[in-house]
Design a protein that fits this description.
The structure holds three protein chains of three kinds. Chain B is built from twelve helices and twelve strands. Chain B is of the alpha/beta class. In chain B, helix 3 crosses helix 4 and helix 6 runs parallel beside helix 7. Chain C is mainly alpha-helical. Chain C is built from 14 helices and no strands. Classes of the chains: A alpha+beta, B alpha/beta, C mainly alpha.
């Protein structure tokens, strides 16, 4: 009965009401969220929980439409770079207003960049060597860099423009961090309605949004904090939430193909690495030993058994859906060959210490798998679970750094730089306060990374990054253990859901409507 | 046994616990109005068990036999009926005055509680409590009525317990080892008090004790119990002159004699009383008795039979009387 | 109590309060020092990944982490003496505001769980004791054993799945139904605010949302108190004063309630007092399942972020609650136990 009615009614409704008339946001979308945002400060947008909310409340100069890894205009209608790559000029859209009704101008853009710089915002530290901002006119800004930075425009996808008039009076108090942590000063499609930490965040559609409200959109969006995966499942079943991103893998499979639910499988780019400390001394300093223990990582088995096939297998240091990805880098899983290397060199009985983050289930399971396989080739893996700050702190000194560390990458923008620089550059070694837990320092790699970062020639850049991946593949300094996909279960009332690969664990809820 | 007895106990047995052994084994005795009866024996002989069972105060005991108060059967009676007897007709005093009073209630509350349950107004019940405290010799009773038990000395507490037992003007006052926990000087005061109250009220008194000396001056009649059985019943005067059972003789021998000094060890009966469930055959006293003959060790426990001026359960009575003289 | 006693009691409470203040300073010092042992660096966390050593060092100075620990503590204490708990390094809000926003939800949960605890465990314990060795007693002991053995997390999930999800008798999660999500009040306590505004539908709705979490939280505590009440009442029932109370011919109910239970309550109240603190630190397990905001979650977040001021703030507030409940227990004891009252008078 039901399908018949639907078949009949939907085209009928479409006939009666042209899309233009249908426009105007309506309904309330409820999204389960397993974490509460630490704060609502756009300076903190590198945190994906915060970023998810910023996407709706603020605007950026450029944006990544869902699924894309190249930028498209948002506040900026177009832009150009100077020949020396030190200055970028953006033409701003006119008629954009903040939620208080005031116009968004070049002044607000410059204020935002200067504030981010003063506050040490991680959103901006990732955006390269920003130097200053010039107001050319009300609708033109010029952003200046102290050194050329190839992926600069991509990196602006998370710099959210704030309303200077509202924020400036609070600058004296820790660069307005306290105020912006609980208030909103944006021009985005949704206006913050209420923020209840650990409970919910609601926003309502901004009627005067510059892009208008054509198409199917919702009038109110509620992010409901639901930490427990099983509770998310229960609420989804009860119809209390429309989107449940954090179900257990078993629940995700159970909902797949079930009447009334949609399972969205998005290609994600949040790879997990086991990084091997090349400065640990002993056999670990020998690339052959590292090769052997990398050959004991069964990536395919992990993908099939733990991630139930919801994953990709990139065979190289970068996610397979990332620009500049090169495959065929890692050695094949081969315990026999690995054991031969260990035996031939008399390395049997070597102990390797791994620190991983047990809060990520995949890390726990990958550690167990690696431990079991290494035991078969005569290497003892001592796996210890710890917190991220603890691992980070340990890596800051070679005395405390573990032989291997588990760490997932959340690249700040879709460019090889966003992954490889933090992973491989010597300035980002753990001992220098970075995430290069391999403590890998190779002038050949550094030179190529630096050159690629400062070049504006995309073809040249990709070539350099390809070379980098080949070099490190030969040095056996880490292994990409898993590249999980984003699997999100939704009610079939939801229309227009699409995973946003450029921002991790987020989606553009402003593009979503309800049936 | 005449039916004029106010309390008539017949074949009363009490069992406890898993072993279901009899702690009291078919005892019978009567109590007349105004009489003072002593029940004596070593601890574990079943004195307390039998008395508490009559009032239905043994929570986990199986009681058989009969105990009639003014012809009314108490054994097996429900709480509703028993509550008409408890306190109102039979009052109870227990051994340890430190344990006998609820530490968190004023003595006035505890004395008047029974009266209040019978519908007395609070004021009237409290006034009566003050009056009772005066009667049992608690000084400045009108203030002390609001005091808590821990604010009283042991002797004074026992007076409070007696006042509590007297509160509803019972016909019988049963005192279980009322002076054991008190020092000697106080013992006499408390006993005098009870005796005098009984006389003035025409109340019967049952004193339970392991110490024959305590009751020597206060009772009309004495029942001696051993291992759950009554072994002798006698009048007070005769009992001390000429006991009818070797066990009684043993108890009397344990009493301090005149001129006894504190340093001197008191004589005791050798051996231990048997525990219920592990009783010897024949006379239960025979393993400890000096007059045992083969006849004593076999067969059933000898019955309690009327002899001379009382009752005795000793089959060697003649021999015992001859030798003990 | 007469005037003299009342005065002494006031003096006594004053002494207890000043002891409490000392205990809190000690507590703050211990938490502050212990916080240094937790691996990780607040500045590293605040800076975010790949910030670089320069930025981390800058932040360390900004956050005062470059100072020796005793100086950090001295600064903290001087702020604390002005009632300032500091600012959180991750929410950027005054810690007191953060706690104020989260404590009411936890407090409501603990309050209801405690209410259920008192209302269920004491009667159940008394029933078991008065029916000693009967089928009722056996059944209660079985329930108690099960209650003490069930992991809170598992119980919560089971109740949520079957009683809320399948049967639909109670809400699955949250503090209040979706239709009332915009309700707010001055205290942050939904029950109080809704009652104060006469919004009885919201009051009832919030109470409904509290029920399963409260039962989940209370079960273990109910088991503990039922067991102790049973054994204490069993013991007091053996007391001579109970036998003598019975010998007065008063009803069994009065004997049990006025004498056996009344005396057994003294140790039980002490346990209740301790349990408030234990419950408060257990709420996080329940709050995670039922998606309720709460103070425990904030504490865990503060710990994982190495936000030492946040941790000390929560510990202090929890400590104050713990000490206040124990003070209340002490005062209740003054009423329940005349000996205690006298020892106070003697001071």
């Amino acid at each position: 009965m039901k399908p018949t009615i639907r078949k009949f009614l939907v085209p009928l409704a479409a006939l009666l009401l042209p899309t233009g008339v249908l426009a105007g946001p309506s309904g309330t979308l409820v999204i389960a969220e397993n974490l509460t945002p630490e704060n609502l400060d756009p300076a903190n947008s590198q945190n994906s929980t915060v970023d998810q909310l910023m996407l709706g409340m603020y605007d950026t100069l450029v944006q990544f439409t869902a699924g894309e890894t190249t930028v498209s205009p948002r506040l900026a209608t177009d832009w150009s770079a100077s020949a020396d790559g030190l200055s970028y000029t953006f033409n701003l859209r006119s008629g954009v207003t903040f939620h208080d009704g005031s116009a968004l101008t070049a002044d607000d853009v410059c204020f935002t960049f200067d504030r981010n710089q003063a506050a040490g915002a991680n959103a901006l530290t990732d955006a390269g060597p920003y130097d200053s901002c010039n107001i050319v006119d009300d609708h033109t800004v010029q952003l200046n860099l102290s050194a050329p930075f190839g992926p600069f425009v991509s990196a602006l996808g998370r710099v959210y423009i704030v309303n200077k008039d509202l924020v400036e009076p609070h600058m004296a108090d820790n660069h307005a961090r306290s105020w912006l942590s609980v208030n909103e000063a944006g021009s985005g499609p949704y206006v913050l309605k209420s923020y209840k930490p650990d409970d919910s965040i609601s926003m309502t559609a901004y009627a005067d949004y510059w892009a208008g409200w054509d198409g199917n959109h919702v009038a109110e969006v509620v992010f409901r904090v639901v930490p427990e995966a099983s509770t998310q499942a229960a609420l989804l079943k009860a119809g209390e939430v429309h989107i449940a991103p954090d179900l257990t893998i078993d629940d995700k499979i159970a909902f797949q193909g079930k009447d009334g639910y949609i399972t969205d499988i998005g290609a994600a780019a949040t790879p997990l690495y086991f990084m091997i400390n090349v400065q640990a001394g002993g056999p670990l300093s020998d690339r052959l030993f590292r090769k052997a223990i990398i050959m004991a990582v069964d990536i395919k088995a992990l993908c099939d058994a733990v991630l139930q096939g919801f994953c990709a297998y990139p065979e190289g240091p970068m996610p397979s859906n990332w620009p500049g990805h090169v495959g065929g880098i890692y050695p094949e899983f081969d315990l026999e060959a690995a054991k031969k290397i260990i035996d031939d060199n008399g390395w049997a009985g070597t102990e390797v210490n791994l620190t991983f983050l047990p809060e990520e289930e995949i890390q726990q399971r990958a550690s167990e798998m690696w431990q079991a396989n290494l035991a078969k080739i005569g290497v003892k893996l001592n796996a210890t679970g710890d917190t991220w700050p603890a691992l980070y702190a340990a890596a800051q000194s070679l005395d405390t750094a573990p032989d291997a560390g588990g760490s997932s990458a959340f690249p700040p923008f879709p460019d090889p730089h966003g992954i490889l620089y933090g992973l491989l550059h010597s300035s980002k070694m753990g001992i220098n306060g970075g995430t290069n837990f391999s403590q890998y320092s190779n002038p050949e790699v550094d030179a190529r990374l630096d050159k690629a970062a400062s070049s504006a020639d995309q073809a040249e850049r990709m070539k350099l990054y390809g070379e980098v991946q080949e070099i490190v593949g030969n040095d056996y300094i880490h292994v990409l253990v898993a590249q999980p996909a984003s699997v999100v279960t939704l009610s079939d009332k939801v229309v227009g859901y699409k995973y946003n690969v450029a921002h991790h664990q987020t989606f553009n809820f402003m593009d979503i409507g309800l049936k | 046994m005449q039916s004029s007895n106010i309390l008539e106990v017949e074949s009363l047995s009490v069992r406890f616990g898993e072993s279901r052994a009899k702690a009291v084994d078919g005892i019978s005795f009567g109590l007349t109005k105004g009489e003072t009866l002593g029940i004596a024996g070593e601890s574990g002989s079943g004195k307390t068990a039998s008395i508490l069972s009559i009032l239905g105060l043994h929570q986990r005991a199986t009681v058989e036999g009969s105990a009639q108060f003014e012809g009314q059967e108490l054994i097996g009676a429900d709480n509703k009926l028993l509550n008409k007897i408890r306190g109102k007709r039979i009052g109870l005093v227990l051994q340890d005055p430190f344990a006998a009073l609820d530490p968190v209630k004023t003595v006035g509350h505890q004395i008047s509680e029974g009266l209040r349950a019978s519908g007395w107004s609070k004021k009237r019940a409290m006034n009566h409590a003050i009056h009772l405290l005066e009667e049992v010799g608690v000084p400045s009773a009108s203030q002390r009525v609001n005091a808590y038990p821990h604010q009283f000395s042991g002797g004074m507490r026992q007076r409070v317990v007696i006042a509590m037992a007297l509160a509803q003007d019972p016909d019988i006052l049963i005192a279980d080892e009322p002076t054991t926990a008190l020092d000697v000087r106080i013992q006499k005061q408390v006993l005098d008090l009870m005796k005098q109250q009984c006389e003035s009220r025409g109340m019967s008194l049952v004193i339970i004790t392991h110490d024959l000396g305590v009751i020597s001056n206060y009772t009309d009649r004495i029942v001696i119990m051993y291992a759950g059985k009554i072994v002798e019943e006698s009048s007070r005067l005769k009992l001390f002159d000429q006991p009818l059972h070797p066990y009684t003789q043993g108890l009397l021998d344990c009493l301090p004699t005149l001129g006894h000094s504190e340093n001197e060890y008191l004589k005791t009966i050798g051996g231990q009383p048997p525990i219920p469930g592990k009783l010897p055959s024949g006379c239960r006293y025979h393993p400890r008795c000096a007059f045992t003959e083969p006849a004593c060790t076999n067969g059933n426990n000898p019955p309690l039979v009327p002899v001379k001026w009382g009752r005795s359960a000793c089959i060697q009575l003649e021999k015992f009387l001859k030798e003990s003289q | 109590m007469n005037k003299e006693t009342a005065k002494n009691v006031v003096v006594y409470i004053g002494q207890r309060v000043s002891l409490t203040a000392i205990a809190l300073v000690v507590l703050s010092f211990m938490t502050f020092t212990l916080g240094q042992l937790v691996p990780g660096d607040a500045a590293v966390v605040a800076a975010g990944p790949n910030a670089g050593n320069e930025r981390i060092a800058e932040l360390r100075v900004e956050m005062g982490l470059d100072l020796p620990i005793h100086k950090q503590y001295a600064i903290y204490l001087s702020k604390l003496s002005r009632g300032d708990l500091g600012k959180s390094w991750f929410t950027h809000q005054p810690i007191w505001e953060d706690i104020k926003a989260r404590l009411p939800a936890s407090a409501e949960l603990v309050f209801l769980a405690m209410l259920l605890n008192v209302l269920i465990s004491v009667p159940l314990g008394v029933l078991a004791a008065t029916r000693f060795d009967s089928k009722t007693d056996g059944a209660i002991r079985l329930i108690v054993m099960a209650g003490a053995g069930i992991p809170i997390f598992w119980l919560g999930l089971i109740l949520q799945h079957y009683v809320a999800g399948e049967a639909g008798w109670f809400p699955i999660a949250g503090r209040v139904s979706f239709e009332f999500r915009d309700f707010s009040g001055s205290t942050g306590f939904l029950l109080i605010d809704s009652a104060a505004q006469g919004e009885w539908r919201i009051f009832w709705d919030a109470l409904n949302h509290l029920f399963l979490p409260a039962i989940t939280l209370a079960t273990l505590f109910i088991a503990v108190v039922t067991r102790t009440t049973r054994s204490t009442v069993l013991r007091t029932l053996q007391e001579d004063y109970v036998t003598l109370a019975r010998s007065k011919g008063i009803s069994e109910y009065q004997v049990v309630v006025r004498h056996a239970l009344r005396n057994a309550l003294i140790p039980t109240i002490t346990i209740f007092g301790m349990q408030v603190g234990w419950m408060l630190s257990t709420t996080i397990l329940v709050e995670e399942i039922f998606s309720r905001p709460g103070i425990g979650k904030y504490a865990v977040k503060a710990i994982t972020q190495s936000d030492i001021h946040g941790v000390v703030g929560v510990v202090l507030v929890m400590g104050v609650i713990f000490l206040i409940t124990n003070l209340i227990v002490d005062i209740v004891h003054l009423f329940l136990n005349p000996r205690h009252r006298e020892s106070v008078q003697g001071k």
